[in-house]
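Q: Predict the bound structure with S-adenosylmethionine.
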Amino acid sequence: MSTIITELPPDSFVRADDTADAVFYARERTVHHLDSVARSTVEELIGHLIIEDNPVLLDLMASCDSHIPESVKPSRVVGLGLNERELASNSALNDFVIHDLNKNPELPFEEETFDVVLCTVSVDYMTDPRRVFSEVGRILKPGGMFLVTFSNRFFQEKVVKIWRHATGRQRINLVETYFEDSDQFDEPTVFVSRGKPRPADDKYAPLGVPSDPVFAVYAEKKGSYGSSRPTISADYDDRPFEWDEVNARKLDLRNTLECPYCATKLKKVEVPDTPFTEWTSDYMCVCLNDECPYFLFGWDAMSDQGGSGSYRFMYEPSIQNCYLLPVSNKTELREYVIEDE
Ligand SMILES: C[S@@+](CC[C@H](N)C(=O)[O-])C[C@H]1O[C@@H](n2cnc3c(N)ncnc32)[C@H](O)[C@@H]1O
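A: Predicted complex:
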C-alpha cells in the first residue's frame, strides 16, 4: 500500500480550531458555500456522472443542499453530517445520520450499500482522509463512484493545515492521493471549471471576481460494473490561454494595440505614480475588459500566491514592454483613463 499521506509533515492535518467539530457545527448555517454559477456547475457534474437509473446515494458531510439535479432519480438518498437542523431541511434526503467523521472515520453503513457517494466542498475538513476514503470504498458497490468536489473557499479555522496552504493544483493532487492511498479505487479523474463570470446579483460581482472555481476528483470503486461512466475531464491548465494566439497578438501589439489575451482595444491610462519606476511613455496601454481571461484567471493566480486581487495586462508603447499590473477590483484604474473611445 502507498504511504504517501503518512509521508506528509506530521502536522498536515491539524486545524486552527481543533476542538470537537460538533461544537463548531452546532450553529445552523443556511448560507450557500458557493455562488450560484458554481453550484450549477456542481449540479451539472453530478447529473452527468451519475449513470445509474435509481441509485442509492450517500451525501457525505451534508448540509441543507445535496446539489442533486432533477434528472437524477435516486431510489434513496442518505445524508451524513453534523447539524441536525440543516440535514432535516435538506429536501433531497430520505434519511440522515449525525456522525463525526473526525472522531470516528468508520462509516455507519453495511458494505456495498451505495451506488454513489458525494462529498461537496467538505473534503478539506477531514483530519483522517485516508481512513474515510477507505471506508467509502467499503460501503460503495463495485464500480460505484465517489465524487469529491471542492473550491477555494472554506471555514479558515476548521480546514486542515495542508489544505489552507495549498494551491488549486496541489489540492487536486492531494485528493488524488487520498484516492490512491486508500487502494480501493480505479485511477481518479480530475475536472476543473474556472473563470466563469460571477452572477450579477452576487455581492462580490462589483469587484469583478469570477465565479468560485469548481474542482472535482472522482473515481470508481475497483470491480466490474457493466456500463461505463462518461468522462468529463477538463484538463487542468494553469495557463488557460490559447498561447499560439496570445503570442501572435503580442507580436502585432505595436500596430493593433489590442490585448493579446482577449483582442480588446487597450485603453490609454495615465502612467502609474510610483517613485520606484521611471516610465519612458506619457501613458500606458491597459486592457480594462472585465471579461478578459487574463483578468479573470488573475484572481486565482494571485490567491494561489497568497495574495489578493487580480491583474490587468499593461503595455508600455515607447519601449514595447508588457507588464502585469496588479489591481484590487475591477473599477481601479478607470479614473486614470485619458482616452476612452
Ligand atoms: C462547507 S459545508 C458543506 C455542506 C454541503 N456538503 C454543501 O455542499 O453545501 C461542510 C459540512 O461538513 C460537515 N462536517 C464538517 N465536519 C464534519 C465532521 N467531522 N463529520 C461529519 N460532517 C462534518 C458540516 O456539518 C457541514 O455541513
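A: The two ends are 63 Å apart (CA to CA).
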